[in-house]
Amino acid sequence: GVFMMENVIDRVAYETKLPPNKVREMNFYAEDGKQTTPIGDPLTYNQLQNVWETLKTQADYVKRTAAVAAFNKANRWRKRGIYMTPVKYGLTQRGYIMGVVINVLAEDGTICVAHSGVELGQGINTKVAQAVAYRLSVPLSMIVIQHNSTETIPNSTVTGGSGTSETVVNAAIMAADVLLKRLQPYLAHTSDTSWQDAIDAAFGSGVNLSAQGYWGGGPTGSVKTNPLYDYFVYCACCSEVELDVLTGEIQVVRSDIVYDCGKSLNPAVDVGQVEGAFIQSLGFYLTEAVVQCEKTGQVLTAGTWDYKPPTALDIPQIFNVTFLKTSNPATVSTLGSKAVGEPPYQLGASVFFAAKQAIYAARADAGLTGYVNLNTPATPVDLQ
Question: Residue 225 has what pLDDT?
Fold first, then answer.
């Protein structure tokens, strides 16, 4: 859907002879808090304009656009393009069912945490450990994340949709609060009471040192009484590419991303998620062509010899990711954070349309005009 609408903007800009950014900015949502999405969700915390203007400044868009034009004028067989694209991505915690179990070992105070999410490299274990340590006011080194199993926590929903880390952290905070309430009489004696002292005293008094937290699906009711999305993520990317006109090969010279992450649960993890999603999207937009036999339907690009996922050489030569210094004020949020994962994937469109700008520059030198229809993935063969 994002790609389709970016194509609409691109075509409107071409036909009206307006810069794509001008067309885009004329159609941005207003920041008055009165507008709604097509399905009726209110846009009460709109950060789109903030993200967009921050990106234009940090990417030095105006100056670099002039530099790209000068480069293209001086080079016949190598052309550059620069392009900006924004994203508004709705997130909801509705429908997620997640559980957390905390067990404290009385002998040394170690806090063992099991949760129903699946660690896929998205850093969910790190975020859960941090949330428990934060809530219990203990060092992170005291937290041990255990293997997840339906024998430990059954009946959870799938890991996916970019909302699992947040909802599992919600459950972890709930479990920590249950435990903290039981331990409060033993932690409140003096300001010098250590975690281990409190655990020793509580264990000696027969206090249960195991606690459960359960996130039961978020807001209830129909979308008519509750918005479909709890909040929106706003982000934007400016990408500059260089095209070898003779071979069709593309090099991403630079990409700048500004992302509205709220109060990130872990900036190091979340930056990695933004970078990874963006690079993954380059496969969709540039390299991962699926070819099938017209007669049998057999997939002919069944291995990396023919099917080309992005590699280290596809990473932008200059790659900047910036988080806005904001918080998520939505009623349903996790410690003021916003999700990462799927939203930045859409930003790869900036590379695709920058490549189209480079194509137009090459065609102009050859005396060719007219709108260029370019499908994804735009492989070297297609770009030629």
Answer: 66
Rounded distance between C-alpha atoms, residue 355 and residue 358, angstroms = 5
Please indicate, yes or no, whether the overall pTM of this predicted structure exceeds 0.85: yes
| Helix (H) / strand (E) containing 364 | helix 349-365
Q: What share of the chain is helix, strand, coil (3-state, %, to 5)?
A: 40, 20, 40
Question: DSSP string of 251-263?
Answer: EEEEEEEEE--BS
Specify whether the CB–CB gap between 142 and 71 falls below 8 A.
no
What radius of gyration do the chain's Cα atoms show?
25
Calpha distance 175→136 (Å, rounded): 10
Q: Which residues contact 140 (CB under 8 A, 6 or more apart)?
A: 129, 130, 133
In the sheet with 78-91, reading across from the earlier edge strand, the strands are 78-91, 231-244, 250-259, 318-323
Residues of the chain with pLDDT below 70 are 189-192, 218-225
Q: Which residues, 6+ apart, have CB-to-CB distance to 75 below 8 Å?
A: none
Dihedral angle at the C-alpha atoms of 114, 119, 123, 124, nearest 10 degrees? -40
- What is the token pair recorded at 261? 């992450």
86 cis-preceded (ω within 30 degrees of 0) = no
Dihedral over Cα of 196, 202, 207, 213: its sign? negative
- Count the Cβ atoms, other than its own, within 10 Å of residue 293: 9
Closest residue by Cα to residue 162 from 339, 346, 345: 339
Tokens representing residue 320 in the block: 């900047």
**pLDDT (tens digit, 9 = 90+) per residue, 339-363?**
998 999 999 999 999 999 999 999 9
pLDDT at residue 192 in the model: 64
pLDDT for the residue numbered 43: 86
Q: Read out DSSP for 63-98?
A: HHHHHHHHHHHH-SSEEEEEEEEEEEEEE--TT-EE
Cα separation of 37 and 190, whole Å?
A: 53
**Can 15 be counted among the known catalytic residues?**
no
Q: Which two tokens stand for residue 355?
A: 């490549």
